[in-house]
Here is the input.
Amino acid sequence: MDGFELNKIIGAILGTLLFVMGIGFVAEAIYSPINAGAPGYALPMPDKGSGEAGKPAAPVATPLPVLLADASVDKGEKVVKKCQSCHDFTQGGPNKTGPNLYGVVGRKIASHEGYTYSQALQDLASKEGVWTYDELNTFLTSPKAYAPGTKMTFAGLKSEKDRANALAYLQSLSSSPVPFPVADAAPAADAAPAASGDTTSTQ
Here is the structure.
């Protein structure tokens, strides 16, 4: 192969490369993307005035006297079955992992004879005194939260109806049951204002 033919081949290769590069430049110019502007629809921003935006409101608890008014001893007996592995509910019955609970309503906290209470319950006794329905209701909601350090491992009764039924059953475990608390009476209606046309003499 002489030098002339070699030059022709090299020239052909270079020409092809230049042609391909030119096609690429033209295609890029034709199909170059158009930068998008601002969105056509702006999404509403969260209300900065509310620190709890999107957070559901906490449920309002039913007053305990209202719950107790509809509580069932029979349903409460079923609720406390889960407690029988640690507590005895019979009069004169033994202490188990936990103390005997007969007559617990109105009893001094951490006072059942023969049972060794945790320091948490002893401290609670000096602060609260006796097991009222309110104290028992709060304790049964979450024993560990109400008395940190308690030996009781039970997680608690999250249902307010279950707690009310359990309290109704505990009330029945007594020769002199402690009455349920009474719901506050509804406020009396405001007295009607005196008629504007009253002409009663003040003399």
